[in-house]
Specification:
By secondary structure, the chain is of the alpha/beta class. It has a single domain, classed as Cobalamin-binding domain (Rossmann fold). Helices cover 46% and strands 22% of the residues. α3 links the parallel β3 (51-56) and β4 (80-85). α2 packs across α3 (59-74). The mean pLDDT is 96.
Length: 120
């Protein structure tokens, strides 16, 4: 599993999610903030990621998630994408529009969302 802030530079939400998931015993790679779509796709595939968490603060960055999900699909990667951040809270269908598999509303529900994505 990996987490990144896609083409944005906020950190707090990602840090909270990392802390919650790691304290629950999940292994999690942190790709940092400001990562581009191409770099995110490349690293996720190279690292054999099964679940990719993407956080955004701005709508422009949230819309770029669609580019990432399309490129992952084109590459044949079987990676579940979970999104979170303000744009997804303001538009409750946006996560589906960008091709994500799930959306988290807060760090406190991160473990439950991951368990659902994993099928358990």
């Amino acid at each position: 599993m990996a987490i990144a802030v896609l083409e944005d530079y906020h950190l707090l939400g990602k840090r909270l999610v990392c802390t919650v998931l790691r304290s629950a015993g999940f292994d999690l790679l942190d790709y940092g903030h400001g990562i581009t779509v191409d770099e995110l796709v490349k690293r996720s595939i190279e690292d054999g990621i099964q679940i990719l968490l993407i956080s955004t603060l701005m709508l422009k960055s949230a819309l770029r998630v669609k580019d990432a999900t399309v490129k992952l699909h084109e590459a044949g990667a079987d990676i579940k994408v979970v999104v979170g951040g303000a744009p997804f809270l303001l538009d409750h269908k946006l996560w589906q529009d960008v091709g994500a598999d799930a959306m988290g509303r807060s760090a406190s529900e991160a473990v439950e969302v991951i368990k659902q994505v994993m099928g358990g």
